Amino acid sequence: MKEITSAEFEQEVLAGGKVVLDFYSTECPPCEAVAPKFEGLAALYGNDITFVKMFRQQNKPLAEKLGVRSSPTLLFFDNGVQSPVVLTGGIKRSDIIHQLDCMLPAERIREIKKEIVPTVSEFDVLVLGAGPGGLTAGLYLCQSKVNTVLIDIALPGGQVSTTHEVSNYPGFIDPQPGYMLSHNMSEQTKQCGTIYKVAVDVTKIDLDKKEVVIDEFETVRAKKIIIATGTSPNLMGIAGEREMKGKGISYCATCDAKYYGDKDVVVIGGGNSAVEEADFISRFASKITMVHQFDALTANRQAQDKLFANPKIKVLFSHEPRSFVRDGDKIITEVEDLKTKTVTKLVSDGVFVFIGMKPNIDMFRDKLALDNWGYIKTDEDMRTSMPGIFAVGDVISKKYRQITTAVADGTIAAIAIAKELS
User: Fold this and answer.
1) So what's the pLDDT on residue 28?
2) Pick the CATH number of 241-353 from 3.40.50.10260, 3.90.78.10, 3.50.50.60, 3.40.50.960
3) N or C: which end of the chain has fewer CB within 10 A?
4) What are the distances in angstroms from CA 157 to CA 146, 154, 360, 378, 413?
């Protein structure tokens, strides 16, 4: 693994044959997550492809010239020609492999794949999910000297990292940016000693054997497992939604609101998330139309008062979306008045959907006792119906789902496990 500067770029990259270049930064959790994957793949593919890295802050002019605006960013070159594919953020090992394979003949790829040796790692506790519940469990476990690994398909933080502002987390007088709150939680747990395996592909989960296979080659085993996989946004399941998901229809205001400066936006939903995120989107958009199926919002009163005082936002009560249609750069949202059955077309530049969440349990749904809504049932110590398997956070059956309740769940599970293992 060689580190280069801008002065060496032409010789090492443009004239270097097949090259993959990693622009990294310091104090960058995604960079830390991708580094071992990058180094491991360099050992596999290094005879055919040159792996180099560059410190982005000290080589900013070149980074900007190449269109690199975040860290980490991987660029791929073949005899001086840059690939149009750019990997950035929470980069998975499988994504890197796919791009490397595109640079080599099929026969050589088969030879390299034969060199991949399956590995097995053993821990006392495996925490599956790195949101507030999982991070708190990891923190308490490592402080109890319990050998713990935290696995997540994304970067640590969960949904908190995509929340623009958190105003009700104890200990902070001023509202905290969600990404900063989750970053601090993650750093605290990491510094304590919890092992992180994040931005990975979870290939298989076997709760009976208490093992998880990641990136197709590494088996992680543990004496106990804590499920902290959280929830994902519900889809409406109407025409045009899947086709335009990520192409005008979004489920994350923090991620995408900035792209709608001085534009018209439709927001679907009327709960706390919809109301709070609509207020955030109004910092950018010039006009917001909320579509809500009931004749009153279900968000808390403080959030509602703030929304109704916002001149950019109007609410269509007792309406439901029926379809989405692309019309040039615009999206037409067809909505039905549930009282009159009249269908109206709303023309906007983008749509945000906030209609609730569903538990992330697809890989082990049939193994655990669930409630009527598909959430995992637990006892007061966060034990599930399977011996040695615990669950915490939004994925479990409970009345309220908040950052604070997830943190409490993680605390309880960790203490219970630490006592069992002592």
Assistant:
1) 81
2) 3.50.50.60
3) C
4) 22, 9, 15, 23, 19
